[in-house]
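Trying the structure run again after the queue cleared.
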Amino acid sequence: MLDVAAPLSGTVVPLADVPDAVFAQEIVGPGVAIEPAPTDGRAGTSRVVAPVAGTIGSLFPHAFALETPDGRTVLVHLGIDTVQLAGEGFTLHVAAGDAVTAGQELITWDPVAVAGRGLATVCPVVALQAPPGQVRVLLAPGDEVQAGDPLFSWA
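Done. Tokens:
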């Protein structure tokens, strides 16, 4: 069993409600999404932390894949269509290949600025290529979660 923590604070959203078919239809795997905590409309940074311990596999300003010692991969995508920002508004604090601990800060970003560009800020957290039924989401849609809180279990 792999326990996956929330990589950022916010509100739990079902993957089915993510405005991107790749995530909503669980094409890349099951999981859940988080709408970042509101910042009262003020621009500012939101911390993104490692949801599990492991090694940074793929790393982009808007997304990362974290490989665990047992060969699983957790994908975190910050917003939808944020690749088109070409890294603007995102700051990386690690590099691909780095070993990280659960809870370690990986990226800071500004969801208010992303929303201001007309992009969705919802963040899918996915058990990459896990078979259906292996992920048990621990929270209900609409629940508030803090970075580091338990998010889902992966059998």
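Residues 76 and 125 are 5 Å apart (CA to CA). Worth checking whether this holds up in the mutant runs.
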